[in-house]
């Protein structure tokens, strides 16, 4: 390995997530262009921007749902640019989606247990779990972490929408993730549910970093330490939450001339 390659490897090894020059084109349309971004282990970052800014396309490239047209992605120092989604999941990457994808006919506990089982070594076992099953204990702990303890035996289809979003966070936490992508977790939530969401996100273990896409600035800026603003598929601004909130260009472009 030459000196330049060694230096690049050392820089990458210090980041949880590293994107360099990520571009995604659909025919003649560039959904994102030359996005370069680094996130440290345990860092919480918001990626904000108006509809069409390229946020979801960026998430899809990170998770492997889309392969980038150009650029590379490293996850904890490993090049995962062309890895399929399940290989990125095996390495500790998780994601929630804008549209819920839950087993609505099963209980809260069953949903979380299946998520834990799905990323375990014994995921293909046909044996029924017993009361002392380690994965069952793990599922119960995750349910507690997202404030659904009283609802653990309820059928998911009976839950309020906000509770279903809380359940999605529990699923994303299954199997000891190293990094999570949250795609608009506050969408459709009531003010009370949004306060609960903030409490859940701020109480996550400190070693779990995440990126959150969120239209609700009041939620996003309270749960992160850094912000990346996107516009027309490119990075527009980066900074701390208070810097982004007070930035005149951000206020004019995204907040209608003011915020707060």
TrEMBL record:
Residues 17-257 form the ABC transporter domain. Keywords: ATP-binding, Nucleotide-binding, Transport. It comes from the Bacteria. GO terms for molecular function: ATP binding; ATP hydrolysis activity; L-isoleucine transmembrane transporter activity; L-phenylalanine transmembrane transporter activity; L-valine transmembrane transporter activity. The keyword Signal does not apply. GO terms for cellular component: plasma membrane. SMART domains: AAA. CDD domains: ABC_Mj1267_LivG_branched. GO terms for biological process: D-alanine transmembrane transport; L-alanine transport; L-isoleucine import across plasma membrane; L-valine import across plasma membrane. Pfam families: ABC_tran (PF00005). This is ABC transporter ATP-binding protein. It comes from Prosthecodimorpha staleyi. The lineage of its organism: Bacteria, Pseudomonadati, Pseudomonadota, Alphaproteobacteria, Hyphomicrobiales.
